[in-house]
Amino acid sequence: MSPLERAEANFAWKLVLPTIAVLSLLILYPLLYNIYLSFFDVQLNGDKAFVGLGNYTKLLANPDYYSAIGTTALYLLGTVVGTTLLGLAMALLLKDPFPGRGLVNAAIMLPYVAPVISVVFGWQFLFDPISGVFNYLMVDVLHIWTERVNLIGDPDSALGVVILFDIWKHAPIAYMLILSKLVSIPRDQYEAASIDGYGPVGRFFHVTLPELHFVLATVILLRLIWNLNRFEDVYLLAPNVQTLPIFTYYQAFTGVIDQGLAAATSVIQLGVLCVFIWFYIKKVMKW
Amino acid sequence: MKLNTLTLGLLSAGMLVSNMTYATTVEYWTTQTQSDRIQTIEVMAEVFEALNPGIDVKIIAVDENDMPKQIAAAAAANTLPDMIEVGSNLSLAFAEEGIVDMDATSEVVDKIGVDRFYQGALKLIENPQAQKYVAVPYRGWVQGIWYRADWFEEAGLEPPTSWESIEKAAEYFYKPEDNQYGILVGTKADSYAEQCYTQFALSNDAGQFDRDGNLIFNSEAQAEVLDYYKTLAKYNPPGPQTWRARDYYLQGKLAMFFYSSYILDDIALAEAAASSLSSENFSDLKGASFDPDLAKNTRLATTITKTSPSTFGTLVGFSIMTNDSKEEVAATQAFIEYMNEKDQVVAYSHMAVGGHLPVLKDIAETDEFLNDPKGIFAAYGKESIKEMVAGFENIRNFSVVDGKTFPDSGEIFAKQIIPRMVYSATIEDKDTQASLDWAETQMKQITDQ
């Protein structure tokens, strides 16, 4: 490195230093403090007693924790695959201009922009076992079912409903991201593929999909991160679906707040998330 | 509100007096924070001031949840109020901390007349070691099973007051093919489930703690309760159920459900019930319009009996706090006595019809009390209101055993251990003993701390 280059590099560091300092303060400090707290039994008045790995062993000895991990895995799989496929399908269907596309786009975005509390209540009323429209249609009008069911409440179907809800609510953002890339793929690539003898399916696999690789990877990665930490949708709709955030809430934030245990749970969750991201970036995205 | 011209005259006289310097101030902390209710209490206090020149009543509204914190701060700063209006558990807890003047409070109870109170209400605020009262019971609400008296009569069934009669009726009215259900007991993991469950547990003498503070939750009696509760839950609408019971009942889908007496106006008044009904949108949905006869056909069974009668509810009373000034204590006693006169009790009760039931037997039976301005009580008939208020005879809860409070019980409540146990037992079909073992383990984590 020449002296000039070195001076430039130093100058560059100086320019980004304030940003690094602010980010460290806002992100690194709470992160490290959280790890620190996870080794203590924290009282509400601020008193701390060092318990070593006590919080971790308490957590790992709890069978409910593993069941929460299982539920979370299913939830992640269902929601990430579902939103990505639905978003992709909608983008492919709606990529060519047609009259009223703006209106359709707005309608598609509606679930995503609507406040979660209002749509959750909407779903609860729709699926209400006694006076909900869904049961009314299935039992009284169409006679498909003989008995009314509580789809949201029943533990066997609750996870399915929660996944469906997430797909319905978040597919629009996948759709938007995928569509924006889709419309920018040059037409001549498709023409060239056609000349090479590819039909619509062949063109999809050899032109569209490779072009979408990065945007799909981004959608999947973002959805994984968001949904691993998703609390409000699940808790409001069906609190009996115990994903990790709900489990953490019951463990740590009901009754007297157990900050040490909560910190330990989130440290493990952060670790898992980091592994996820590392694997994804290095192996899948090959960045 | 019922304040006659005489009292209004006295009130204006009081205004004149209020310009003078006061010798004594009664600082009164209330958990009523809504402005219209505070105004009502202020008017009552002003009348008292007019009648008692030289006493100033200072009303301070404190949020219910902030009360323990505020009292702790005031005790530390030696600025405790003269009297507080709080739930019975808090009164007992404050008395154990030594900041309630039990002698002065008991004197007021004696003066008003021990026999005039519902006995269950007095038991909830009695400190048995000291044989004194920690509060003057004032108002409360009771929970119970609201049921369709007309359906019961038609079917020739007994009112749901015992385990047998409840189960029999629940089974009889359970007709899921007609979208009609026998009963609704809480099965979702929230406080509603805990309230329903607690009443059954106490009716079978299955408590959380014994009088020495030992955790005795995992018992044979408790297993009986949970088994019974699981049976009842079979006659519930499908899936985990909670507060929406109110809506389903108004829609005519339930024969019985648990709720507090706060619901009185919803059943009796069309405008209060409107949010539960959906006739505009689904005109052919059965039971979607307001049933004007519902109040008349509804009764509340407040007491459930298995091995002993139990009513679940909340009792609020006035506690006189420790104070060196004898004048202030005397003034506070006078004010509490005044608040227990009929006009004041009635005015206070009518602020929240059904939510503020009086605990003085003779007043609960007067026409003045039973004729509320909106005519809600009248819609049920006076007899059924009297029955409801009489639930205070047997009112009980988990955290008080022989007058001793166990603060751990509050923490067990906050951790939602019982609702979660109820949920897994009824909805996930978890074995009764396994559910109790789980709950006990969770409770021990709290009591061992």
Structural description of this entry:
- The complex is a heterodimer of chains A (287) and B (449).
- Chain A is an all-alpha fold and 287 residues long.
- Chain A has a single domain (63-284), classed as Orthogonal Bundle (MetI-like fold).
- In chain A, 75% of the residues lie in helices and 2% in strands.
- Chain A is built from twelve helices and two strands.
- A two-stranded antiparallel sheet of chain A has the order 1-2.
- The longest helix of chain A has 35 residues, at 3-37.
- With 449 residues, chain B is α+β, with helices and mostly antiparallel strands.
- Chain B folds into two domains: 5-141 and 312-394, Periplasmic binding protein-like II (D-Maltodextrin-Binding Protein, domain 2, 3-Layer(aba) Sandwich); 144-310 and 402-447, 3-Layer(aba) Sandwich (D-Maltodextrin-Binding Protein, domain 2), CATH 3.40.190.10.
- Chain B has helices at 5-17, 35-51, 67-76, 88-96, 102-112, 119-124, 149-155, 163-173, 191-203, 220-233, 245-250, 264-268, 270-273, 326-339, 342-349, 361-364, 367-370, 376-380, 382-389, 407-414, 417-426, 432-447; strands at residues 24-30, 55-61, 83-87, 126-127, 132-133, 136-148, 256-260, 298-301, 304-305, 309-320, 357-358, 395-396, 400-401, 404-405.
- In chain B, strands 1, 2, 3, 6, 7, 8, 9, 10, 11 and 12 form a ten-stranded mixed β-sheet that branches.
- In chain B, a hairpin with a 4-residue loop joins strand 4 and strand 5 (132-133).
- In chain B, helix 1 (5-17) packs across helix 2 and helix 5 runs parallel beside helix 14 (326-339).
- The termini of chain B are far apart.
- Chain B: It comes from Alginatibacterium sediminis.
- Chain B: This is Extracellular solute-binding protein.
- Chain B: Belongs to the bacterial solute-binding protein 1 family.
